[in-house]
Amino acid sequence: MSYGLYIGRNHTADGIAYLAGYGDEPSSHWLELLPRCRHEADARIPVGVTPQADLPGRMSEIPQVSETARHLRVSYSYYKGVPAPLTNGGLNEHGVAVRDIWSSSRPDLVAMTPVDQTGPNYSDLARLVLERARTARDGVDIIADLIARHGYADYGGNSHLIADAEEAWVVIEFSGGRGLWVAERLGPDAIRASRPGYVGLVPIEDPTRADFLYPPHFVSFAQEQGWHRPGTPFDANAVYGDGKGRWAGVQWIEAEMAARAGRPEKIGLADVFWAVRTERLTGDTAGYGQVVPLLGAEPEALRLVWHTQVGAVAAPFVPVFLGIESVPEEYRRHRYLSDGEAARFLDTRHAEKGRPETLSAVPQGIESTRSAGLAGKRLLNLLFQHHETFLPEALALWQAIEATLIGEQARIARSAAVLIQAGEPDLAAHLLTYFTGTELQRALDTMEQLAQSLEIRTRHLFGIRTEPVPRAPEQIW
């Protein structure tokens, strides 16, 4: 149940569009940097779901492309039995950003889903767009072609928000194994939240409209099933989706951002941070936070993602440049909340006796470092136990840190650009890595120090709660 938000460039103070959101899965999350890679002509990759998934299917292989793009992404270890590792958001070297967001299909379609379904799953589609797309529209075409050629292995319906500097597209992939999907273009005047992803009225009376795309049988299948009457408006959400339209949380955040866009100063980066962080939308289910400035003609190294390793209510956003050499160990995959790790060891004794499944998938060296995810969850629980007292203090702190980082990020980007123009890309990469790593570590230090302070104050002012029902601010979804 992830969250995505697109802000068109005509609404922003800097004239840059933004794609933001978070993943909403009960598992570990970690930050990954994938290099540009070349592949053999006959290379193939596994996709799909297994018989153990909530909606079962079969794994299959599809051809790999000759070269995949460098990209940053957030991965995680579990959702509805789909094979890990999974991904639902990121940015590639071409400036294409992706958010994966659930979107329930109508029960009739879910019931039609073959038990031996094959083809890419929702995470496969997000990853393949990051690896292959050069524009947002290219991402739509990639998803459409993959579904047409190989099918789609789903868990009940899904969607993707794909964006570049010029435009964004909402793509809804419907359940049922019938190759049904629809895409809507969002231009520079758009403000669109997805939770769940939705597309409403589709102008089927004018199939030449370039801002809506769908397969040839999209309308006829619905009419064959008796879900749409010819000559009436075609509401994709009502016909193929959950029929609920824009959920209350979507209506609220879209209205909030529209109001901010109407100010003389329009929407700033701090406003986008707020939209991902606000406690009305963000709690323990938010696995991380992500804000992507959709930059146009820019050296790939200077593209960036503003990232939090836990829900942004409990951490400051930190700029992570695509040109870094590596992700700090503290922000990589740790055992905390990783699926299957409760039955594994960082010890080879059982594995050497013929039980390789008992060996942890997390390297011992990584596990010996601090976990930014674990630190963030501890802080979030301290904040939420007595949110009336502690949360305003933390939110003010994050805003102050981010105000400083916005200025520092701009200076570092200019410095790295000078190095790149001078023919010193390795020095630029070193600078970006040092800056990003230092600020991620500083954010982790701050989270741990604030948590230590709040635990002391909690013990003396309130005592540690042991009630089974957790406390948290009221959320709209």
From TrEMBL:
E.C. code: 3.4.-.-
Taxonomy, superkingdom: Bacteria
MF (Gene Ontology): dipeptidase activity
Parts forming coiled coils: none
Catalytic activity reported: an L-aminoacyl-L-amino acid + H2O = 2 an L-alpha-amino acid
Keywords, comma-separated and alphabetical: Dipeptidase, Hydrolase, Protease
Family to which this protein belongs: Belongs to the peptidase C69 family.
Protein name: Dipeptidase
Native source organism of the sequence: Labrys neptuniae
